[in-house]
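tool_call: predict_structure(chain=1)
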Amino acid sequence: TEPPIISAGYDDYYSYTGDAAPCNNGNVRDFGRVFLPTLYSIVFIVGFIGNGLVVCVLVKYRQRSNMTDVCLFNLAMSDLLFLISLPFWAHYAALTQWTFGNFMCRAVTLFYMLGFYGSIFFMILMTADRYFVIVHAHSSLFSKHRSVKVGIALAVFMWALSLGASLPTIIFSQVKNESTGLTCKPEYPDPVWRKVSYIELNILGLIIPLSIMVFCYSRIIPTLYSMKSQKRHKAIRLILVLVIVFFIFWTPYNVVTFMHFLHHLEYFQNCQWQHDLGLAMQWVETIAFSHCCLNPIIYAFVGQKFRRLVIKTLKQWFPICFSKCKTITSELSERRSSMYSMRSSEISTTKIV
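tool_result:
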């Protein structure tokens, strides 16, 4: 089993029946029962801590918020919605059947899909915001309307887009009693819907965001190079990291998704292909999902202003721990300074001799 983004689940590959005998891909199921719950749990814990910290800091210091902070807040909320669904999918993968009922099937699918598309759309919004701030910095029209209220309006629009892209999967998701047990997946009234869902995922999940990122950052980098700022090289490295990380984490997932689409067009029909696609999807899916763990690091913690606020908040929450860390750091610095002074004296003594 797998989340409904792929629309059919691994059930198609466990018991595929072609012109010959049915395929026996039970080892794919057995591998998924151990692999998926473990990786989903790790992604959930790491991602929840990071994104939860982002939300807490932005709420705590909301008086200092700007449009970038609004985008960061909604990106973190999107990732949290997505992460909330992972324990349910982990349980689903471990038992190989859905035990939470029809309402929770749709509710978890709602969290999953809204978080999935919301995360991507808010990354696009942050990219566009960075593009206008750097490339069109002297545009009075943009500077005048770049406020928190405009950011909130754009965030509402992005959530509406995410809901619109998610609706077909949410509406058609239901619990069904099959030979392998209870399943939670979309039951489309027409096979065309399933094919459209694959194309939608590839276009909205990779082609459009990657195209916008490449276009915007290809204009941002020359603009930064023309500036006489010492921080431009750090900014350029961060931009390259953003694009490369997004490409590495999401491209394999979209490639395998496209191969699923070709499967429904009656390509890759033999048993070996079904086995390989089932295993490949489990790997690339987890790689793609772990991207939400990196979002707080890439988009939030890298910024100096936000990093200072995080450290300030952690000192308030865990004063004992940070006081110990401060003591250890001061002791290490004292040891280094004393060792350095001893070496300097030794060197000076040697020179005199």
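agent: Residues 6 and 17 are 19 Å apart (CA to CA). Proceeding to next step.
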